[in-house]
Amino acid sequence: MEIIFNPPRGEWEKYFSRAGHDDQTIAAAVARIVARVREEDDDALTALAESIDGVKLDYIEVPQAVMRQAAAKVSAELKGYLETAAGNIRRFHEAQRSATIDMETMPGVRCVRRVVAIDRVGIYVPGGTAPLVSTVLMLGIPARIAGCRETILCTPPSRGGTVVPEIAYAANLCGIERIFLAGGAQAIAAMAYGTRTVPKVDKIFGPGNRYVTKAKQLLSVSEVAIDMPAGPSEVMILADGTAVPEFTAADMLSQAEHGPDSQAMLVCNSLAFAEQVRRQVDKQLENLPRREQAAASVARSRILVMDNVDEMIDLANGYAAEHLIICMEEAWEVARRITCAGSIFIGNYSPESAGDYTSGTNHTLPTSGWARAYSGVNLDSFTKKITLQELTPEGLAALAPAVAGIARAEGLEGHARAVEVRMAAISPRTTE
After folding, report:
1. Which residues are within 8 A (CB) of 175 and not within 5 positions of it... i.e. 6 or more apart?
2. Which of 180, 242, 340, 419: CA 20 to 30 A from 208?
3. Three-class SS of residue 299?
């Protein structure tokens, strides 16, 4: 892992780059899969499950009895852990409810904003080498709190051709009653278009590999809303002499083990600390079960040593990390100055993995620098805001000159006349 000392500001941009990949190849493959699902419907899902996942499906939608049987296989211990996580996620997201706004902006002009749940949402839960059971909770719980009429879940089939037990149990905790065995780009296409079995949804949530991400981006252009642009997971750590090298290395590896495309960045103010962390990373990597994936990520990760706190903060805002850990003496003051990050973790005892699973904040976050403009998933993600207005004759009379004047400045005479025809009708009342 490379150590860079005081990089000039003009060179920061090159350190902001994430893992690259052949987008054209992936885009072409995804386009073919999407077209196939649109043309062949459920038949494409079963064929792709066999060719990509190596599973011959007996069903696409998991029967209720199978869901109950699968959920029953989860150990009591893990059930307890998932219930703890669900409780914290529920409490934090319930606190995010938005109130209706109902006010007069001026006499006779009433403006209202009300919050309405998205009708039907789709959740994608990756399978593969690490089925993300926590994602079920992170997305299913706020969907239920928001009041979405229906939440469906797509996930790749297990090797046995059915649903992973932990995913079935977590879905039950969230009140999700429909699970479909579809993975990858084909799952996104099924939820975007709808098939004989999979209902069409209004918005798709959830992480995934490059194919899933590309499918979401492609289909969001015209078919379905998505939670946010996303890419490989990442962490940046800001550290000074109060940080613990062993903890810092563990945080970097917890991110790196996601896969070769993941990135861990350390920004610290001491070369000695940087070297300690690098040694700890090598030591801890030796017995990590996902050593191969993590090692590939570490090879692309970096340590930047900077002796100016203001520049450390500026660099963090420029990088706009999905996860930002701050282990510094004035951590909360530093955090106050951070304007671009998905989620921030304060102090030596706030590992990123706590936010991934149980603290209560949402782990579905913007990556690849999108934190400059996007928030992580929250309760608002599952709602839309509808505005209403009602003007009395007196209220319209007060606004009419401004409305007509602005309309004519824009060359829209019809807009102006829509006001003036009303003013002509009510003028006797307004002049009495």
Report:
1. 140, 144, 151
2. 340
3. helix
User: What is the DSSP pairing of strand 302-305 with strand 234-239?
Assistant: unpaired
The one-letter amino acid code at 96 reads Q
Other beta carbons less than 10 A from residue 101's beta carbon? 12
Strands 150-155 and 120-124: parallel
Which amino acid is residue 253, in one-letter code? Answer: L
Half-sphere exposure of 203 (CA within 13 A, CB side): 20
Asked if 21 is an active-site residue, the reply is no
Q: What is the pLDDT of residues 160-218, one digit of tens each?
A: 999 999 999 999 999 999 999 999 999 999 999 999 999 999 999 999 888 999 999 99
Query: 415 catalytic, yes or no?
Result: no
**Per-residue pLDDT, 393:** 96
SS (H, E, C) 175-202: CCCEEEECCHHHHHHHHHHCCCCCCCCC
DSSP 388-403: EEEE-HHHHHHHHHHH
Instruction: Choose, from 166, 223, 234, 322, the residue flagged as catalytic.
Output: 322
pTM of the model: 0.93
Catalytic pick among 223, 323, 352, 363: 323
Instruction: Give the pairing type, strands 203-205 and 263-268.
Output: unpaired
Lowest-pLDDT range of 104-113, 127-136, 179-188:
127-136
CA distance 135 to 146: 17
Angular region, 175: left φ>0, alpha ψ -120 to 50, beta rest = left
